[in-house]
């Protein structure tokens, strides 16, 4: 453990030295506020923030050369008013949460966290009589978590593209991605990310031959770092530029926490709002337009 902490401290020190040599660039000349209040929509309360995201917070301080202070929120609905009132400057949000923040707080996207195999898949048992998406009509689809980008909204997009309305299927959320539910017949189909599907095969010690992949969607936009609309555009650009240029340090910080292993192989790229239009279409398809207005 001491060795790991020493290595991490060395990486942070090296990054600080590297940042100091880049002061000639235009973005490094921008004066970022002395303190940025940082929230994470997927973390509830200060205990989870400190437990899972402290290495990232410390690395972000080095990259942006300013104090980063956690601002705990209980859910996405609390993040929007906090950003509007100036209590939150920067947030890390999932794609489904981001479109809500954009609609309710005019949050500005700066960096996308693109994940490997972050595509929605819809899976059934190989023994099932369901052989296509159209066969799902009248059947039960477990989307793991309502509002989840890969498990729920991505599945809705696949269904609509196949000419199926979500109302034609019984959609439930059992809050577990175990594939055993398909084997026992508790549900007819399941949706999740491709990465999670492959992970569950390993965890449940199952073979791909026991299941049929009905459909696989395109890559989803992934998580996003968004800033308050109250920050000046030059500051917004500087934050995004510095994070992307020094993403190796930030990604190392993320992956130093076991709970964040799903980001293995991720990269950081510039984000634009149009990247998330597919998420908006899915919200509209399930009759939740008000959520993103």
Explain this structure.
By secondary structure, the protein is of the alpha/beta class. It has 2 domains: 2-116 and 221-292, Periplasmic binding protein-like II (D-Maltodextrin-Binding Protein, domain 2, 3-Layer(aba) Sandwich); 119-219, Periplasmic binding protein-like II (D-Maltodextrin-Binding Protein, domain 2). The protein is 40% helix and 19% strand. It has 10 helices and 11 strands. It has helices at residues 2-20, 45-64, 76-84, 95-105, 149-161, 180-184, 194-203, 233-245, 247-255, 277-285, and strands spanning 35-40, 67-70, 90-93, 108-114, 119-125, 140-142, 170-172, 189-193, 211-219, 223-227, 267-270. Strand 1 (35-40), helix 2 (45-64) and strand 2 form a beta-alpha-beta unit. Helix 1 (2-20) crosses helix 2 (45-64), helix 3 runs parallel beside helix 4 (95-105) and helix 5 packs across helix 10. The longest helix is centred in the first third of the chain and has 20 residues, at 45-64. It is globular and about 60 Å long. The N and C termini lie far apart (47 Å). Mean pLDDT is 90; it is low at 1-7 and 13-24.
């Amino acid at each position: 453990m001491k060795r790991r902490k020493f290595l991490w401290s060395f990486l942070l020190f090296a990054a600080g030295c590297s940042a100091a040599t880049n002061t000639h660039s235009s973005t490094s000349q921008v004066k970022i506020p002395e303190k940025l209040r940082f929230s994470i929509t997927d973390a509830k309360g200060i205990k989870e923030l400190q437990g899972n995201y402290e290495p990232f917070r410390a690395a972000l301080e080095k990259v942006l050369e300013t104090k980063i202070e956690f601002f705990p929120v209980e859910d996405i609905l609390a993040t929007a008013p906090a950003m509007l009132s100036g209590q939150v400057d920067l947030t890390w949000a999932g794609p489904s949460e981001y479109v809500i923040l954009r609609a309710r707080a005019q949050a500005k996207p700066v960096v996308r966290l693109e994940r490997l195999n972050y595509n929605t898949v819809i899976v059934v048992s190989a023994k099932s009589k369901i052989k296509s998406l159209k066969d799902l009509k009248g059947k039960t689809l477990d989307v793991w978590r309502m509002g989840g980008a890969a498990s729920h909204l991505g599945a809705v997009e696949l269904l609509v593209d196949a000419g199926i309305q979500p109302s034609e299927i019984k959609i439930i959320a059992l809050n577990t991605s175990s594939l055993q539910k398909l084997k026992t017949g508790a549900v007819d189909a399941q949706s999740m990310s491709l990465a999670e599907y492959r992970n569950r095969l390993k965890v449940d010690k199952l073979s791909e031959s026991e299941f049929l992949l009905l459909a696989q969607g395109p890559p989803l936009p992934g998580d996003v770092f968004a800033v308050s609309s109250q920050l000046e555009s030059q500051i917004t650009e500087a934050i995004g530029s510095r994070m992307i240029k020094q993403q190796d340090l930030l990604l190392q910080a993320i992956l130093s926490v076991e709970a964040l292993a799903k980001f293995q192989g991720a990269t950081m790229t510039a984000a634009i709002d149009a990247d998330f239009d597919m998420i908006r279409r899915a919200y509209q398809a399930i009759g939740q337009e008000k959520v993103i207005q």
